[in-house]
Amino acid sequence: MALSLPLTLQELMNRAMNKYVMEFIGTFFLVLTIGMSVIAGGSGVIPPLAIGSVLMLMIFVGGHISGCHYNPAVTLGVWMRGRTESKDVVPYMFFQTAGALIAATVVKYLDPAAVVHPHVLAVFPALLAEFLFTFALVFVVINTATAKGSSGNSFYGLAIGFTVLAGAFAMGSVTAGAFNPAVAVGASAMGMIGWSQLWVFLVANFLGGAAAALTFKFLCPTDK
Fold first, then answer.
1. What pTM does this model have?
2. Which whole-number Å values give the CA distances from 222 to 174, 210, 212, 213, 216, in the listed order?
């Protein structure tokens, strides 16, 4: 007779895996949209609109399952804010990055003949641009999706998606507009960012996420 785990423990394990799978799915479609709209679609207003829109949709889809981070910098910020359990931080980041890498593989399969030119970045302007809009993104997430004052709202997906949209428009000439370490890894795998410059995004994005959490805790010290 097979030995079975207690039902309550099985339920906890299922819920944890559901969260991780949702983070994979959301990040996958975000990076897939980035790759197909930028590489196949080219420049202009369409890629930022598509990217902001798919992020908004995936947030509305997955918010009740995982909290819809789809971004290791968001996971870091929400954890520092106290709304993500420590045991979920590494799995969230792992599944987000896995989703980004598999999406990059699908993009390359769907458009194998595409010629991709990596962004040539000026290091310090790119660091600042990625830091500022990652800060803005994580700050919006924390304030619209985790704060007591905005509890139960129905606009958080729109607010978060439009933050990425605004960042892509505002900083498109300065940086690749990742604002997300998993997106940066996926973009590197697609050839949109040189691997040698990946560190710029990782440093700026994680610092931006941490700064957003600390700023929220300073501004809202009683919102535990």
1. 0.92
2. 37, 19, 16, 14, 10
